[in-house]
Write a structure and sequence with these properties.
Elements: H1 3-12, H2 18-23, H3 34-48, H4 70-80, E1 88-94, H5 97-109, H6 120-136, E2 139-140, E3 147-152, E4 165-169, E5 172-180, E6 200-202, E7 208-210, H7 225-236, E8 241-246, E9 254-268, H8 277-288, E10 292-300, H9 302-309, E11 313-323, H10 329-339, E12 343-347, E13 360-374, E14 377-384, H11 390-395, E15 401-402, H12 405-409, E16 413-425, H13 433-439
Parallel strand pairs: 1-2, 1-3, 9-16
Antiparallel strand pairs: 3-4, 5-9, 5-10, 6-7, 8-9, 11-14, 11-16, 12-13, 12-15, 13-14
Length: 440
């Protein structure tokens, strides 16, 4: 069966527009739009039958005229996207059920396979999409575009309004590394566990009163790294909300110093995407007022969120340690030599077992060194595998961590101050700004 014979049967099911005719044969000829393909087939059939070429006079019963409105739909999309900053886009279409049924009927009546050619939805996405690109001077992205325009096609709608286009604006992302310069600041907001963040509790008279545990604030801590860094980013990108994603987190009472910890701030519904990251970095640091600061700020992608959250990182710590009894320099050196390069077994620490499942893990101490600063005080520096509980490595946590510094010394030991100095990927130079720019 020739393509012209198949085309003749489609035409006989008319009136069928050029686009709907050509779409039935999109998988059998290439290099043309469906409208051009349909026109060529109609001319060829007319010449073979020695009939005059005539376009269908009535409106197409398959698409009900929608294939003639690509330009109008594209302009409507461009109008709907006005005011949003974007470099990439995608167009999607909700096909009317009647048009889907008509497509099936057309192929059945013409004796064509049900999946012959191309669907109305695919053509609509492509034809409207490429026109949107020309109107907005942006690029199509089928993976994760900055914006998605969803078309609610309705042939009964004479005029296409912006209400027929649903605009989905995907998040924008900024990567950086943060330093936390004051203790008792959590990484993210920490709602009060007693009132659930409401700031209220039940009063004796049956009413409500401020929560005694959090003082009515709803939070256990007044500030967080999240609160000190996200507002300037949300404002610069004119977004609805900003979310903080960190590569792990340090204890509330620990400082995060030196190279800092990787993070990504996600801004939802941003109206601005291209920002001066150097200026934004300065704004964040001014806003944080010396309590935290950020470095290496750069625009990022959604993929960077997963890379940061799943980063397999080693960490370097500096800590002050207090002993329950006198310790000599030789004894400390011997104990540290025993721990240096060893693998320890750690049960879930007692300080977190109320919110984490109990299990035993093994972690490696890559390097450990230290100096006595008095018979009962020492300063240690530890580089360990990600997930190593360093406080418990010192204290032993009542036997939950073995070996431990306290166990080897035979003296109780406690970390009194902890600073995180570096968070670095085990398998990639995550701290290298040049590597980051290439990755982004």
């Amino acid at each position: 069966m020739t393509i012209l014979a198949d085309a003749r049967r489609v035409i006989e099911n008319g009136p069928v527009c050029e686009a709907c005719l050509g779409r039935c044969f999109a998988d059998r000829s290439f290099g043309l739009t469906n409208r051009e393909r349909g026109s060529a087939l109609r001319v060829a059939v007319a010449l073979e039958d020695d009939d005059p070429y005539e376009e269908p006079g009535a409106e197409c019963w398959v698409c009900e005229g929608e294939s003639r409105r690509f330009d109008a739909w594209a302009q409507t999309v461009a109008d709907a996207l006005e005011g949003w900053s974007f470099d990439t886009y995608q167009v999607g279409t909700r096909t009317p059920p009647l048009v889907e049924e008509n497509e099936v009927l057309l192929r059945e009546s013409a004796g064509l396979p049900e999946d012959a050619g191309e669907l109305f939805k695919s053509e609509f996405n492509r034809e409207v999409g490429k026109r949107v690109g020309r109107l907005t001077d942006t690029e199509v992205d089928f993976e994760r575009p900055d914006v998605l325009a969803l078309l609610n096609v309705d042939p009964e709608r004479e005029e296409i309004s912006e209400h027929a286009v649903e605009v989905q604006v995907n998040s924008a992302f900024v990567y950086g590394r943060y330093r936390k310069l004051e203790r008792d600041i959590p990484q993210t907001e920490w709602p009060c566990r007693e009132c659930g963040g409401s700031g209220k509790q039940l009063a004796s008279d049956g009413g409500e009163e401020p929560c005694e545990y959090c003082g009515g604030s709803g939070y256990l801590y007044d500030e967080s790294v999240e609160e000190l860094t996200t507002p300037p980013v949300r404002e610069a990108m004119d977004g609805e909300e900003a979310l903080f994603h960190g590569a792990g987190r340090e204890d509330v009472d620990a400082l995060m110093l030196d190279t800092g910890r990787p993070f990504v701030i996600e801004v939802k519904q941003p109206r601005v995407r291209s920002v001066d990251t150097d200026a934004l970095e300065a704004e964040i640091n001014e806003f944080a007022d010396g309590k935290a600061e950020v470095t290496d700020l750069a625009l990022a992608t959604h993929e960077m969120v997963e890379r940061v959250k799943e980063l397999d990182a080693s960490k370097t710590y500096r800590m002050d340690v207090a002993f329950d009894d006198d310790v000599t320099e030789p004894a400390l050196e011997e104990a540290l030599a025993e721990l240096d390069g060893t693998t320890v077994e750690q049960d879930t620490p007692s300080r977190v077992d109320h919110r984490r499942a109990s299990k035993t893990r093994t972690r490696t101490v890559y390097d450990i060194s230290g100096d006595l600063e008095g018979p009962r005080r020492a300063e240690l520096r530890i580089h360990g595998e990600g997930g190593l509980y360093v406080k418990e490595l010192v204290s032993g946590d009542e036997g939950r961590t073995t070996p431990s510094l306290a166990g080897l010394l035979g003296v109780g030991a406690e970390v009194t101050a902890l600073d995180v100095l570096a968070v670095e990927g085990e398998d990639e130079p995550f701290a290298d700004p040049e590597y980051l720019r290439e990755a982004i």
